[in-house]
Specification:
Length: about 375
């Protein structure tokens, strides 16, 4: 992470709201400690309309033009600014022109002569095409903190590193299996991850070590993890649990516009595909059944990458290692032929959901019963 230049303004922005807040707070406290004094100002810049945005800009101008009372210097923090991107407030002509004028003032401001004045701006998404951002990028320093995404190959590793650091900051340790289970439950959500770590450390009490049983006892599952739970029930070939999970997911579909029966189906297709790929890796001898998570991850690192497809959908190494680790014992519950039939059944289920007028719940239930039944051929 680049160090912010102390003689010019610093902008910390990005999709990862939690990381932006943490980094901005860290830099603000660091600067306050370096300068000392009591003249530091925090300007709240989360606004709901253009009038509030103009008031925040005016307050920032006043802060820049007001010398520190004790003469030592001061830090000005324009905190949580939400009118630097493509928001409705940011697109108003009044705010756009005011920000452009502020950018010109930044250029004219003698930052080197006024080294005691330090300006920090923290924001979410920022429109990089606008004059304000271009000016800050040219005369100051910009840190852009991208959020985690399930499409990122290394999001799970980054989340595990963040989790271990957060646990150690609280003077505790966490086992590898526990941190992997925690990340699989929370998904790419830094704020929730930090909240769950706080819960874990409080739950552990005087114990130094946090284990996977602690995670199972107190940690929640977000939407992504609950979708994994449906796939896990399928992998475990546990029909009663599978139908319960399906019922829970279908109930949420009714109230969540971002979820659908097709989305649930695609999650199950991904699960079966992962099991097929894992079975092929076992057959090739690239990996062996392993109970220890660390040793299993070490095996994955030795898999020849040039033997795997470039398409992420068919590349097992593009999956979260813990997802593969949990699927390892599940692979034994299905033959290769059964997994191939399962993929065919899910394809036909997809066609029926899209093209027929049948009840979606019934179609999904019938398909899952056929896959999980003791003999898929008989079913």
């Amino acid at each position: 992470m680049p160090a912010a230049q102390t003689s010019s303004p610093a902008l910390i922005c990005g999709d990862d709201e939690f990381a932006v807040k943490q980094r901005a707070k860290q830099l603000y406290l660091q600067w306050c400690g370096e300068i000392g004094g009591m003249d530091h100002e925090i300007i709240e810049a989360t606004v709901t309309n253009s009038g509030e945005a103009m008031a925040a800009i005016a307050q920032l101008r006043e802060a820049l033009q007001t010398l520190p009372f004790f003469g030592t210097g001061k830090v000005i923090w324009l905190r949580d600014c939400n009118f630097l991107g493509e928001e409705r407030v940011a697109s108003t002509q009044m705010v756009t022109e005011s920000l452009s004028g502020l950018a010109e003032e930044f250029k004219a401001f003698a930052w080197s002569r006024n080294a005691g004045i330090r300006l920090l701006i923290s924001a979410g998404k920022v429109d990089k095409r606008k004059t304000f951002f271009k000016t800050l990028d040219k005369i100051g320093s910009v840190e852009s903190l991208a959020g985690w995404s399930v499409d990122d190959r290394d999001w799970a590793e980054r989340a595990e590193v963040t989790a271990r650091t957060a646990v150690r900051d609280r003077k505790k340790e966490i086992s590898d299996e526990a941190v992997a289970e925690l990340v699989s439950r929370i998904g790419p959500n830094p704020r929730q991850l930090d909240n769950e770590i706080e819960k874990l450390c409080l739950f552990a009490g005087n114990r130094q070590q946090i284990e996977v049983d602690d995670v199972n006892a107190v940690c929640a599952r977000n939407k992504t993890a609950r979708a994994f739970a449906l796939g896990d029930a399928l992998g475990d070939r546990d029909l009663p649990r599978l139908l319960r999970r399906l019922d829970e997911e279908l109930w949420e579909v009714k109230f969540d516009s971002q979820k659908s029966e097709i989305g649930l189906l695609y999650g199950l297709i991904a699960k079966v595909r992962a099991m097929l790929l894992l079975k092929e890796m076992l057959r090739e001898g690239w990996i062996k059944p392993e109970l220890d998570y660390n040793r299993f991850k070490a095996q994955l690192q030795r898999v020849p990458a040039d033997r795997l497809p470039g398409d992420r959908r068919f590349n097992p190494l593009a999956l979260n290692p813990y997802v593969l680790y949990k699927a390892l014992p599940q692979v034994k519950r299905y033959s290769e032929a059964e997994l191939v039939r399962a993929m065919d059944g899910l394809l036909r289920c997809n066609q029926r959901l899209v093209s027929s007028g049948l009840d979606e719940t019934l179609v999904l239930q019938q398909t899952l019963v056929q896959i999980v039944a003791p003999s898929a051929a008989a079913a």
